[in-house]
Each structure stands twice: as structure tokens, then as C-alpha cells.
Amino acid sequence: MNYALIGCGRVAYNHLKAAKENGLTVCAVCDIDPDHIFDLYNRVGLSPEEAGAIARYADWNRLFDHEKPELVSIALPSGLHAACAKDAIRRGINVIIEKPIALGMADADEIVRMAEEYRVKVSACHQNRFNLAVQEMRKALEQGRFGALSNAAVTVRWSRGKDYYDSADWRGTWALDGGALMNQSIHGIDLLRWMCGGELKTVYGVARRQFHPYIEAEDVGAAVLAFANGCVATLEGGVNVFGPNLEEHLTLIGSSGVMKLGGTSANTVEYRCFENEGAASENGLVEQTANVYGNGHVSLFRDVIAAIEEDRAPYVTAKDGRDALETVLAVYLSAKTGQPVMLPLKDVKTTDFEGLFD
Ligand SMILES: NC(=O)c1ccc[n+]([C@@H]2O[C@H](COP(=O)([O-])OP(=O)(O)OC[C@H]3O[C@@H](n4cnc5c(N)ncnc54)[C@H](O)[C@@H]3O)[C@@H](O)[C@H]2O)c1
What class is the 2-128+296-315 domain? Predict the structure, then answer.
């Protein structure tokens, strides 16, 4: 299957590795900075022959028209995802879109609608759904082992300093990124919403910019979420930890079971206790990962390839990406207005919050 990668920066390494490990033919890559392309090839360890066989573009529409890939993945700055995804979908190309799939609800809803209209597979790159620990929690949930859900919590306590924000102009801006909730915490937020039944009713949120005066958006946020099925949840996400990344926890509490995932990105089972299972256990599962991106890109790519071949929905859909985005935008809106926010959200976008912390 012919594949192309759009955007060759930091996370592109995980995309190119995932493409190669899944046997995709990398026909082309696109980046406005050719040095980023060559640096990526070095990091992945492509031979000169392999690199020479891949066409290089600076304009994704030219790539789409000339190479006609069957699948593309988009690893551009977040504010460019929607435009690029729509250009691909309109040409009947299947797409993996890095998170967040867009920075506004109108764009996200349009992507979901266009995927149906053009009959292409669109997957949001929430690869942590494939973490072994997350899969264990999900399996127990689907088997009904938690019973009735009471409450849940996610905490993303990471660290990003000035060097990170200086590494690219778009980071921490309202037009192209958002802050710690939209960028770093959105995987945890996706997991929380997915585990709590998906249908979110009300969000009470706060956000602050505490220690990063040189970015526009928040470096920490917190919220209380009320779900349609009665489950309540809290989320806390920030990049203000002194020293290295501390943890990403996800706890789910039901009438007949409880699980707590941990590690730096919800990749260990810290605690589990279920009815009829014997003693509670700790550290049931520890998945080794090189960084907080985890191992999930390979699994997510594998699933999308199978979805195309089998003509079924991908495991992580565009609607899932839309829902994660909606949750973050609802926290922003609540933080701005000081009021609870009722979902679904329409027409809210990150640029509505320009100046919030000035
Ligand atoms: N799933 C994950 O765990 C994960 C991890 C990191 C980043 N991300 C997401 O991936 C995306 C990229 O993040 P990154 O850290 O790799 O950023 P980055 O800045 O390192 O890479 C972005 C690349 O896009 C290129 N680019 C910018 N504008 C372009 C244009 N108009 N046309 C073509 N190329 C263009 C840049 O030159 C750069 O090489 C973001 O949306 C981010 O949220 C996801």
C-alpha cells in the first residue's frame, strides 16, 4: 500500500517507523524544511537507496496529485491538520491525523462528515488506546467487570521547559497549538472520555498559565466532568512539574471493580481489584517505552491498514478525535466564562481564547 508522510518533525519518527514496520511503501514525504526530512531519515536509519526512492515535496497538494497515495499520515503543527486532512479526504485518500485532529469544532465536524461522504478511513492518532495497560482496562470494561461506573480521574503531570517551546514557533500559540491540555494532556483526556461512556454532558473547567509567560496558552488546567451515564470524573493536566515527566494516571471506579493505570503515559497497571478475581494486585503489567509517545503508533497504523483492507471503521475514529478536541475546548470555554459548559459544542475554536492570560 502506497503511503506518504506529511510533516517530518519530532513525532514523524514514530510515523515512519510504524509505516516501515507495517510493510507500507513510503512513496513520498512532505515538509517545508528539507533539513527536517534529511534529519528524519538519519534518525530512522534509512539507507541512501531507501531515502532515494522516496519523493520529496514542500506542498502536500502537489504530493497528493502526483503520487496518489492510498494512505497518508499528518504530523504537521496542529493548526494545519484540518486543512491538510480535508485536502486528502477530498481526493479519496485515507488519513491518519495526529492529535488534535483540528483546533476548532467546525473543522472537526467537517472532517467527520467528509470521511462519510468520500468513503475514506480517517483515524485520530490517539495511539495510547493501544497501550497494553489501557487495553486491559478496556477489556474489563467491555466485559462488564467494573459494574456500574461511579467516578474516574486522569492526571497528566509532565514537564516542558523553554527549550521545548523554543524548538518551533507554533508551540503554545492559540492559532496553531493550544497549551498543556490541548497538546500534552489530550491523550489522557481521550482515554478518560472513552472509558466513561463517551457521552459527556457538562464541563466545569479552569486553566492557568503559571510558569511559561512566553507562551500564549495554558500550562495547567483542571476540570470536573459529568457524563450522560451518571459517571463523574476529574481531569488535571499540566507541564509544570519540576524535573522530568512525573506521571500519567488513569483511575476508573465501578461497583464491582477498580483499576488504576500509571507510569509516565498510562502504560502500567498500578492497581486492580475485581469481584471474583481473588486478591487485589499491584503492578500487574509494565510496558517498556522509549518516551511518553509510547509504542502505539505501530499498532494504530496496523489497525488503519486493516480497516482499509477490510472496509471497516478504524479502532480510533475521526469522531473520537473530535470528542477529545471538544472536551478540551469545553474546559477552555468554562475557564473563560467562569460557567459550566453544556455539550455538544458548536463553532468553538482555540483562537476564541486569544488574550485569555494576558
Ligand atoms: N501522538 C503523539 O504522541 C504525538 C507526539 C508528539 C506530537 N504529536 C503531534 O504531532 C504534530 C507535530 O508535532 P511535532 O512535535 O512533530 O512538531 P514539529 O514542529 O517537530 O514538526 C512539524 C513539521 O511540520 C513541518 N511543517 C510546518 N508547516 C508545514 C507546511 N505548511 N507544509 C509542510 N510541512 C510543514 C515543519 O517544518 C516540521 O518539520 C502536532 O500536532 C503534535 O500535537 C503527537
Answer: alpha beta
